[in-house]
Amino acid sequence: MIQDLVAAASTGDDDAVYELARIAAADPTRLAAHLPELLDRGVLWPPTLFRAADREVVESIVGRVDAGVASSLELNHLLVVLAHTRSELAEAALRRWQETPPTFMDGLSVSSLGYARQGGWTVRPDGSRRELCGPVAYELVMREVPEVPDGPVCPWCASPLWTVLDLDTGAPEVRQALAHTGWSGRLRITTCFLCVNYTTLYADVTPDGGSSWSSRNQRPDYLRCSTEEPPPLLPVVGPPRSSPYLASAWDEGGSTLGGTPDWIQDAEYVDCAACGRPMDYLGLVGGADLGWGEGADYLFLHAACGLAAVSYQQS
Ligand SMILES: [Zn+2]
Ligand SMILES: [Zn+2]
After folding, report:
1. Distance from the alpha carbon of residue 8 to the mean position of ligand 2, in angstroms
2. DSSP state of 26
3. How confident is the model at residue 141, as a pLDDT?
């Protein structure tokens, strides 16, 4: 069956590609044996297909880049794929090309090591590797919550701030899902559910559950929001997901704590507004689960700076 999908995908069959991507999310290793063929047939998108690439496949991609690709577009695809393999061999190659860029690198807007972020990891200033995502994931299920009268409001549109997350690392599943962030204690994140559609919003957070509008938020000139009540819903931790890749920004039931993001647009890991470093990814809350069907809120944290962030993408 996978063999048929691979053949169909190579002729540009979008449904087959979608089905392969679903398999790669549920269990990437099921595609491992088919990756050399996908590579040969030029099926490089989505790059998540290559999560379970073995040494041979990674070596083949690295060799292709070293031999000289045909265009900056092909180079871009191959670098994104390498980032998603997360392998040491891929990391070594990205580091090498950072110093000695391959052909067509000057046509790309991101440096070689900058591609690591596409796969959910990065390199610290001291050169060590840092994971931006957690290795485990849990469903986020919506719990109805009463309106809070006279609570804090958005300074831009006056809508009451929405609590998009309220967790505590005292719960083992939360501790596990947030281990990569270094956070300890209660984590409550408030945001403006309307203004986040215009720009990334930051919140100052403290381990006692404090969350407040950050003075670092920058109001875009084009922002036009009315005053509305936020959804009377709080995403709470549900059952574990069978893989860290099963978040869905599209489908009902896709909201997820931990694991890796399902981007609607290009990967956009948020930078900390305080220190400029990449923030850790926490999870996503899909519009489908909030009753408006569109888009997704992506949640981030930089524990060292006590700053959380929410960004929004839609199709
Ligand atoms: Zn607002
Ligand atoms: Zn920071």
Report:
1. 45
2. H
3. 98
pLDDT, tens digit, 9 for 90 and up, residues 24-39: 999 999 999 999 999 9
| H helix and E strand count, the chain | 8, 12
In tens, the pLDDT along 41-70 reads: 999 999 999 999 999 999 999 999 999 999
The ligand with the least distance to the CA atom of 276 is 2
Judge contact between 91 and 124, C-beta under 8 A: no
Q: What is the pLDDT of the chain when averaged over all its residues?
A: 96
How high is the pLDDT of residue 125? 87
- Residues in contact with 224: Cβ distance below 8 Å, sequence separation at least 6, in sequence order: none
294 CB-near residues (< 8 Å, 6+ apart): 287, 314, 315
Q: Which of 299, 282, 283, 287 is nearest to 231 (CA)?
A: 287
Structure tokens given for 2: 């996978």
Nearest bound ligand to CA 205? 2
DSSP-assigned beta bridge partners for residue 191 = 162
230 alpha carbon to ligand 1 midpoint, in Å? 10
Report the separation in Å between the CA atom of 88 and the middle of ligand 1, taken as the mean of its atom positions: 43
pLDDT category at 224 given cuts 50, 70, 90 is confident
How many residues make up the chain in this entry? 315
- Cα–ligand 1 centroid distance for 159 (angstroms): 6
CA 281–ligand 2 middle distance (angstroms): 13
In this structure, which ligand is nearest to the CA of 271? 2
User: What is the distance in A from the centroid of ligand 2 to the CA of 238?
Assistant: 29
Which bound ligand lies closest to the C-alpha atom of 182? 2
Q: Where are the domains of the chain?
A: 2-125, 137-313
Alpha carbon distance 213, 203 (integer Å): 5
